[in-house]
Design goal:
alpha+beta; Pilin-like; N_methyl_site; Type II secretion system minor pseudopilin GspH; TypeII_GspH
């Protein structure tokens, strides 16, 4: 009687386990470039929503601007000397170097949160090497985020 020379069930399971391990590592490696960018944008979106709520409930003028290296929140100060925009302390992590908005460096905020809502609807796009995200603020301080190819 001749024996069939095929693979055993155990050998097939070992091969499938190795292929699954390599594919999981490959997916994790390919997504690692976008993870810090998406985390930074998620944290910034959360802070922007809280700034909008603070402006509405505390009756303050707050804004978001780009300083060339990172986004920063500013507050309108009246009092000592001439009125102007003062940088609010940030509790965020370091900003990823490759993440840039489509708006220029400015001393004035591009997004202004007021007690009655947003000063004007704003749309901006965040760019990095592997992707883009579009942010659109509506007049009622709602933020809509769309991931672009």
């Amino acid at each position: 009687m001749q024996r069939s020379r095929g693979f055993s069930l155990l050998e097939m399971l070992v091969v499938l386990l190795i292929v699954g391990l390599f594919s999981a590592l490959g997916v994790a490696y390919l997504d690692a470039g976008q993870a810090p960018m998406r985390q930074a944008l998620a944290q910034l979106a959360s802070e922007a929503r809280s700034q909008a709520a603070q402006a509405r409930h505390a009756g303050q003028l707050l804004g978001l601007r780009w300083n060339g290296r990172s986004p920063e929140f500013v507050r309108w100060q009246v009092g000592r000397g001439a009125p102007g925009w003062q940088v609010a302390p940030s509790r965020g992590a370091p900003w990823p170097a490759g993440l840039q908005p489509d708006w220029p460096v400015s001393r004035e905020p591009q997004v202004m949160f007021t007690p009655s809502g947003l000063a004007r609807p704003v749309s901006l796009t965040w760019r990095w090497a592997e992707g883009r995200q579009r942010w659109q603020w509506q007049a009622d301080n709602t933020l809509h985020i769309a991931t672009l190819p």
